[in-house]
Design brief:
Length: 590
């Protein structure tokens, strides 16, 4: 008796919870866009019991292939009751274009509830295999690897984003993924953005609902104009696809397959920065910046130091331009600046600050002017150049040596006119008579020099034999000969680049030209017009080892990127030595 009361109590609570919720009639479709020869699944669902007189749409633009099929589900989890009753139809469009599915309705407690209008786009017939349950076909229809680019026509130096997404429909399952080929960003300064985990999100692809994850995101800054291609990302994915069959209990049987997917290529066409209004002091800054020059001490003593800080902050290509230099009077000794960077790269772009700190030390007492400094940048949102100019600064040196002036007769460094005083030996007379004397010389015969020259031929014979044997051994060393010839060849091709050391753009242009000229001379091909991937392929065909090829391509890429980044003379010297080393290694193998 108590058990019956308890069951009745649970049923009453369950019924009350179901009827207490607000009734809602919803509609969902399998896809928003389909071919004329495809089918569409539409499902109407009510979340409350007691619904009666369900009235489907008339489906004027469709043929009902199957349905309605009904299903009811009810659950009670953690005290929360859910109920759903659905009506499912399989439709086939009868014409192309934008087709409208009118609302369905149902009556609950004397009140009619309607669904919303649904728009479906029907295109030309698509290729469907003879077996629609073919796993390859199902995988292609339900999984998409996509590269999303924020902007395809940026300015040179303007940052854009590329995001790689994997869209997966609810019809299939993904068990394993692995990236087999990472995308290449030739022609861009790039920085990958760290992603915290791979959360599954909901989104739309081609108008249909999908689950998706963001696999990779990178910030790209184009360094030159022209059509720049972002190569595809390639992945191997293990997918569970339905076979169209069911087991004894009615469960759908799935089959696991491994399939390679590739994102489509993306072409970016960067715009040249406008020449109209371009300031003379523009060094490549693109973004939105603020500029400031400060002096740590304005009043000091001679040989006491002060710091001039040149600071650029804001959002843009902070790592890809040079800061303006500060000119100081000769009386203020200025040292090489110390570079400090506080740069953050995230989903909002590159932001932060870059600064140079100059140490100055005055030598003389006085007041000195540090001229104003200007900084120019290009704002891509407004499409204009902007220039920020600081005020003149002054350093007042209160204590120290006085600066000598040519007209200052009271200065301690001026020369005073004095009378000449004779002190006996200050003046000497010129001698007018000479006495000729001859020096007695030693006879050459029996001298030390005579015997040394006599023994010299006997000493030359063993020395000549030693040199001859050494040359013979050196000539028999084929590896050494090739190495010496390779070093001579490297010096020949890199001579122009060596002359340009210290001049950034001229040096890297000469370095890149030298590498291309070397390949042109050795392989009889014009390499300046082909990609780095093609150069890699050619060198692999010539049996050059992968390490040497990687070093060669790395030097080429460094020459390309370094023109747009601040570099020091030390870094240029290192790049020169790397280029010399890689040419020697290549020549030994070619």
């Amino acid at each position: 008796m108590k058990l019956k009361i308890y069951i009745s109590f649970i049923i009453s609570i369950l019924s009350y919870s179901i009827f207490a919720q607000q009734a809602e009639l919803s509609v969902s479709i399998s896809k928003n866009t389909l071919g004329l020869n495809e089918r569409l699944r539409i499902e109407f669902s009510i979340n409350k019991q007691g619904g009666d007189n369900f009235t489907p749409p008339k489906f004027k633009e469709f043929k009902v292939v199957a349905g309605p099929s009904q299903s009811v589900s009810q659950s009670w989890i953690n005290g929360k009751v859910t109920f759903s009753q659905s009506y499912t139809y399989i439709l086939k469009p009868i014409r192309k274009g934008e087709l409208i599915i009118e609302p369905a309705s149902i009556e609950i407690s004397g009140e009619k509830i309607y669904t919303k209008y649904i728009k479906v786009v029907v295109t030309d017939p698509i290729d469907i295999p003879d077996d629609p349950n073919d796993p390859e076909y199902i995988a292609n229809q339900n999984i998409h690897l996509v590269a999303e680019v924020t902007k395809t026509n940026p300015y040179v130096g303007e940052g854009i984003y590329v995001e790689y997404r994997l869209y997966v429909s609810e019809n299939v399952s993904v068990f394993d993924t692995s990236v087999t080929e990472a995308p290449q960003y030739n022609g861009f300064w790039n920085q990958e953005i760290q992603i915290d985990g791979y959360p599954v999100k909901m989104g739309k692809y081609n108008g249909q609902n999908y689950r998706y994850i963001v696999l990779q995101k990178a910030l790209l800054v184009p360094t030159k104009t022209g059509n720049l291609t972002i190569d595809p990302m390639k992945m191997d994915i293990v997918i569970g696809v339905p076979t169209g069959r069911a087991d004894f209990f009615g469960n759908v049987i799935s089959k696991n397959i491994r399939k390679e997917f590739a994102s489509p290529k993306k072409t970016i066409n960067p715009k040249e920065l406008p020449l109209n209004g371009k300031p003379e002091n523009f060094t490549g800054a693109v973004g939105d910046f603020s500029f400031n020059v400060t002096l740590s001490k304005e009043v000091l003593k001679a040989n006491e130091s002060s710091q001039i800080k040149v600071d650029v902050s804001g959002k843009g290509n902070l790592k890809l331009f040079e800061l303006p230099t500060v000119e100081t009077p000769a009386e203020l000794e200025k040292y090489q600046p110390e570079r400090k960077e506080n740069v953050r790269i995230n989903t909002d772009g590159i932001s932060g600050s870059v600064s140079d700190s100059y140490t100055i030390v005055p030598q003389f007492k006085g007041k000195y002017k540090i001229p104003k400094v200007s900084f120019s940048y290009f704002n891509p949102k407004e499409g204009v150049y902007k220039t920020i100019t600081t005020e003149d600064m002054y350093v007042d040196v209160l204590e120290g040596k006085e600066l000598v002036s040519p007209n200052n007769e009271n200065s301690q460094n001026t020369v005073e006119k004095q009378d000449v005083v004779s002190l006996g030996n200050n003046f000497r007379y010129i001698q007018t008579k000479t006495v000729f004397q001859t020096k007695k010389t030693e006879d050459f015969y029996n001298s030390n020099l005579f015997y040394l020259l006599l023994l010299l031929p006997f000493l030359a014979i063993p020395i000549g034999i030693f040199i001859g044997k050494r040359n013979e051994a050196r000539n028999s060393d084929l590896v050494g000969i090739r190495l010496r010839k390779a070093e001579k060849l490297a010096r020949k091709f890199l001579s122009e680049a060596q002359k340009q050391l210290g001049k950034k753009e001229a040096f890297y242009e000469a370095l890149e030209r030298a590498l291309h000229n070397y390949l042109k001379a050795k392989l009889n091909i014009e390499t300046a017009d082909i990609s780095k991937e093609k150069i890699t392929q050619i060198l692999e065909e010539k049996k050059v080892d992968s390490e040497t090829i990687t070093k060669f391509i790395a030097v080429l890429q460094a020459s390309d990127f370094a023109r747009y980044t601040p570099v020091t003379n030390t870094e240029m010297t290192k790049e020169f030595e790397k280029a010399k080393e890689v040419i020697v290694q290549l020549d030994k193998q070619l």
